[in-house]
């Protein structure tokens, strides 16, 4: 067995003109290498990773549960002589970090520096920009998790991949089940006529967004239209839940 190993981190980030041919070169390196090569990626479904996966042992790691992270963080806090954090506050910090262990440790470090004054509400406000894959972001776009978020937060999903996200929204918006919510947060299903009207409005927004996209990526490259394309895409998602 070799004492050496080559670790290639974030191989799903090999893209663009500057990295053209990078995956093929990595595959060629794997074929002729005499030492183990570990390739790490975040987006397993990326089209470039599919070709690389044919030459690798596919080992997938699942996100740890809140309970698992909670136990590990308690061990760290105990060794650092920090004992004044409430269990519910710790859980909220873990949730806000999207169960990212490294980000959770960093947040707890800040919490400790502040003298442990972070309350439950403040813990809920801790945010982390998560590097999700486009399919997860598409699901998130149609979920109720973004209901109370600002337009800027919602637009961040679009800018994750402003070429792919509109296509995913267009492919999945017909599967959305819209409903109406009144001031008392009571929901009711839409009638067939109401549903068809919403589909019509969403389709119009898709067309307008596509026009913006064509003008953006045309020979003139009118990038000033990109924020307007965001609005059209967000309007489609907003139609999945109306308030009266």
Automatic annotation (TrEMBL):
GO terms for molecular function: DNA binding. It holds the Pfam family AAA_lid_RFC1. This is Uncharacterized protein. It comes from the Eukaryota. InterPro entries: DNA_pol3_clamp-load_cplx_C, P-loop_NTPase. The keyword Repeat does not apply. GO terms for cellular component: nucleus. PANTHER family: CHROMOSOME TRANSMISSION FIDELITY FACTOR 18 (PTHR23389), REPLICATION FACTOR C SUBUNIT 1 (PTHR23389:SF6). GO terms for biological process: DNA replication.
């Amino acid at each position: 067995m070799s004492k050496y190993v080559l670790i290639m981190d974030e191989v799903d980030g090999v893209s663009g003109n500057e990295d053209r041919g990078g995956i093929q070169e990595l595959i060629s390196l794997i074929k002729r290498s005499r030492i183990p090569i570990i390739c790490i990626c975040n987006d397993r479904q990326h089209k470039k990773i599919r070709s690389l996966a044919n030459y690798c042992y596919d080992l997938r790691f699942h996100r740890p549960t809140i309970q698992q992270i909670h136990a590990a963080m308690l061990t760290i806090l105990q060794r650092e002589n920090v004992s004044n954090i409430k269990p519910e506050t710790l859980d909220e910090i873990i949730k806000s970090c999207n169960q990212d262990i490294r980000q959770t440790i960093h947040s707890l470090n800040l919490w400790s520096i502040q003298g442990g004054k972070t309350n439950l509400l403040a813990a809920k406000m801790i945010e982390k920009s998560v590097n999700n894959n486009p399919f997860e972001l598409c699901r998130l776009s149609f979920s109720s998790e973004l209901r109370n978020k600002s337009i800027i937060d919602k637009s961040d999903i679009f800018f994750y991949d402003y070429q792919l996200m509109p296509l995913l929204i267009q492919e999945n918006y017909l599967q959305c089940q819209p409903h109406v919510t009144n001031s008392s947060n009571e929901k009711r299903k839409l009638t067939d006529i109401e549903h068809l009207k919403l589909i019509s409005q969403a389709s119009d927004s898709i067309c307008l967004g596509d026009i913006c996209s064509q003008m953006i990526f045309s020979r003139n490259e009118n990038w000033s239209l990109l924020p307007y394309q965001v609005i059209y895409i967000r309007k489609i998602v907003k139609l999945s839940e109306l308030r009266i």
